[in-house]
Amino acid sequence: MKTDRSIGGCSCAVYRQPLVAKIDDYLSCLSRVEDPAARRWTPLASGTAAVLMALDVGCSLAVRCEDALACMKLDFSCGLGDTFNGLIKALERQATLSLPVLKAELRTRARTAFKSIPRVAGWTLLAVDGSKEDLPRTVDNESVFGIADNGAYPQAFTTVIVEVQSGLAWDWRVGPGRSDERAHLRDMAPQLPDDALLLGDGGFLGYPVWSTLMQAGKSFLIRVGGNARLLTDLFPDAHIERRGGIVYAWPRHQRHRVPPLRLRLIKVGSREDPVHLLTNVLDSTKLSRKAAGTIYRLRWGVELFYRTLKRTLGYAKLRSRSGRRAAVELEWGLITATIVALIGIRVLRRRRIDARRLSPSGLLRVLRGALLRGVGALSHEGVRILDRALAGAVKDRYRRRRPKHSRHNPTTRNTPVTNIQPPQIRRATPRERRLALRKYPSLAP
């Protein structure tokens, strides 16, 4: 792959390692980031090494760094360090410079990739969820991330927004183990695509979350349970709204300061196990009851993303013993998962294969083989060989006749409770109706 750009501080005519060529296509924005303190590790070189380390299966970060350097030595002959400590110090120093630029670039690439993924009922489906990653038991990790609800060792908390059909991450936030996923979502809300429908489970409950999404002009479909308190018949002609499932969210102690939110409650599922979904899409022609049930079942795609991140990539437990380094390690793990999905979607799109058949484990198996063993020829021919291997990383078409169950699946205190109660709904009192009509007459139908 020819280029007239400076790579790692020196001018190169071709990429000799096909895997580096694939990765650098998504990291090229880092060539515009300037680090005055960088002597040997430029932002582009350190970012490439970080992604290669995340792809590697070495037992320690130092071993992974050695493998990454061996893969990069042909293309980064200049501006490349030779020690793990030098690399990790550069990644720590450049985090505030490189990560915002790179995440913005990946969101732009993701927006393009969404065009090749079929929409469901006219929507681009994104799901949000939070999860914890374990950390080594060190004093520094405890001081930075704290002890989470396990009460034993430090944990990091990540909240990720994922395209559910392909497993492509859109945005994420990393924080201490006791972080609030709802606060993370409120911070990410302005960057959501305008044509997306955000799916969330019962953890994303409350007026602050819903109002932030609505003020940003974003659509959502969130499951609610018995801890949700909703009102009906808040304005005149309420019998018309009742037929459409219209409800209102209005905090009792803030009614003189914040307006009520007009929402729509949709009941799907069976009579024995109903599911209550809350959305701000009031028009049933844009989101019907049947479509809402179908769409919400696809929320499971965000759980599959976490399985890929934790099990396939190996980020269930981080390896860094320093809090700052652990945060950098986790950020680059999420970036790597995003780049892997983008690579797979692009290859499948060029070969006219449905992007929903993307296999994350198959992709990683091919990329790891290219990292550790190479793929044969160099330059253009090597890229073509790698593309052919990546095109085969798709899910099988086997139709399973029964669900897959774990042989040993013990119940723990973190096991989700399935018997979710319906939301608490009551009619608005005359006093509440007068207050709503007097203070917020523009909301009346």
Describe the model.
The chain has helices at residues 18-27, 43-55, 61-72, 84-114, 139-145, 181-188, 207-215, 238-243, 289-297, 300-312, 323-350, 360-372, 379-391, 430-439, and strands at 6-7, 10-11, 124-134, 155-163, 168-176, 196-200, 219-224, 229-232, 246-249, 261-269, 274-279, 424-427. Residues 1-13 have low confidence and may be disordered. It contains 14 helices and twelve strands. With 445 residues, the chain is α/β, with parallel strands linked by helices. A hairpin with a 2-residue loop joins β1 and β2. The N and C termini lie far apart (60 Å). Strands 5-4-3-6-7-11-10-9 form an eight-stranded mixed β-sheet, sandwiched between helices. The chain has a two-stranded antiparallel ribbon with strand order 1-2. A two-stranded parallel ribbon has the order 8-12.
The biggest sheet, with number of strands, parallel, antiparallel or mixed sense and barrel status, is: 8 strands, mixed
Structural class: alpha/beta
Calculate the mean pLDDT score and round it. Answer: 88
Distance between the termini: 60 Å
What is the string of helix and strand elements? Answer: EEHHHHEHEEHEHEEHEEEHHHHHEH
Round the Cα radius of gyration to an integer and report it: 24 Å
Put simply, the count of helices is 14
Overall structural domain count: 2
Classify the beta-strand content into a percent band. 15-25%
Low-pLDDT residue intervals, each spanning 5 or more residues: 1-13
Q: What is the approximate shape? A: globular
Q: Strand order across the biggest sheet?
A: 5-4-3-6-7-11-10-9
User: Tally of extended strands?
Assistant: 12
Helical content stands at 40-55%
